[in-house]
Amino acid sequence: MNRNRITGAARDLADEVGGRLRSVAGGARRQSAAQFDDLYDDAVAIGERTRGQAVDLADEALTFGRQAYGRGMQELTHHAGRHPVALILAAGIAGAALAWLCSSAARR
């Protein structure tokens, strides 16, 4: 009778420990999944924030480029109006230089 009681108590203890282990394992699995979901959400938020900053930076660069182009065109127009002969001479020299470069490349 003592043997049966000891065996029964051991089985009860094994069932109880097994149940607890299953519970802990299930909780760990749920916790890991929750942690993974949290990390994934954090990564997505960082990606969205970075994309937003990149778009803002690109918009600022485009605005700056347009302003610089406008100022450059104003200066070019201003100087071309004051010195038209110099502009024509510079365009002729640039054209001759390009023609010389193209012809020397064709000879090789």
Task: Characterise this structure.
The chain crosses the membrane at residues 85-106. It comes from Ancylobacter defluvii. This is CsbD family protein. Keywords: Membrane, Transmembrane, Transmembrane helix. The protein has 108 residues and is an all-alpha fold. The chain has one domain (2-82). The chain has 2 helices and no strands. It has helices at residues 2-82, 84-107. Helix 1 (2-82) packs across helix 2. The longest helix is centred in the middle third of the chain and has 81 residues, at 2-82. The radius of gyration is 39 Å and the shape is rod-shaped. The termini are far apart. The mean pLDDT is 80.
Q: Which descriptors would you attach to this protein?
A:
108 residues; transmembrane; CsbD family protein; mainly alpha; 2 helices; rod-shaped
* Major sheet attributes: none
- CA radius of gyration is 39 Å
Q: In whole angstroms, how far apart are the ends? A: 109 Å
DSSP strand content: under 5%
Shape label:
rod-shaped
Uncertain residue segments: none
Count of DSSP-assigned helices? 2
Mean pLDDT level: 80
- Helix-residue proportion: over 70%
**Beta-strand segment tally:** 0
Supply the number of structural domains: 1
- Please, what is the oligomeric state? single chain
Could you say which structural class the secondary elements and strand pairing correspond to?
mainly alpha
